[in-house]
Amino acid sequence: MTPQQIAESLGLTFEKQTPGYLNLCIRSGNQLISSGHVSTLKGKLGVDLATEQGYSAARDCVAKILNSVWNAHGTLDGLRVVKVLGCVNSAPDFIEHHLVINGASDLLHEIFGKTGNGYHARSALGFASLPTGVAVEVEAVFEIL
């Protein structure tokens, strides 16, 4: 199956977006660069949210990114995941940022392949706060093959 077919088989839906204040995914040369996409879940990891909840929130962020990529490119086919940046709204002593952002990476691996076009570089960082109190924000860079 193609990445587009895999995503759809996982229940991801793709809807047309209306342009807003910022470009959610912009093409530059042979790259698609997403804006940060935030989770629906709000809260702070290590305070009122568990790592597993953060994992699901990071997965939610990537689903939103993929919708923006689909809007910019018309399909998820013909892409390679290059870089992911995951931001976690967390307590100062929280140390499982990487496990939270695995939610983003795991979804990309499922769709694009863990050893193929989904094998990406990544950073997972903790922040004292994120916009509107969301739990996670993720951005990504894709190469158009």
Record keyword descriptors for this entry:
globular; alpha+beta; 60s Ribosomal Protein L30, Chain: A; 35% helix; 145 residues
Task: Write a structural description.
This protein has 145 residues and is an alpha+beta fold. The protein has one domain: RutC-like (60s Ribosomal Protein L30, Chain: A). It has three helices and six strands. It has helices spanning 3-9, 51-73, 97-117; strands spanning 25-28, 31-34, 37-38, 79-89, 121-127, 136-144. Strands 1, 2, 3, 4, 5 and 6 form a six-stranded mixed sheet that branches. Helix 3 links the parallel strand 4 and strand 5 (121-127). Helix 2 packs across helix 3. It starts with a helix and ends with a strand.
What is the topology?
Layout: H1 3-9, E1 25-28, E2 31-34, E3 37-38, H2 51-73, E4 79-89, H3 97-117, E5 121-127, E6 136-144
Helix pairs in contact: 2-3
CA-atom Rg in angstroms: 15 Å
CATH-derived architecture: 2-Layer Sandwich
Which whole number gives the mean pLDDT? 97
- What share of residues are in beta strands? 25-35%
**Helical/strand content category:** alpha+beta
Kindly give the count of domains: 1
- CATH superfamily placement: RutC-like
Intertermini distance:
17 Å
Largest sheet: 6 strands, mixed
Q: Uncertain regions: pLDDT < 50 for 5+ in a row?
A: none
What's the CATH C level?
Alpha Beta
How many H/I helices? Answer: 3
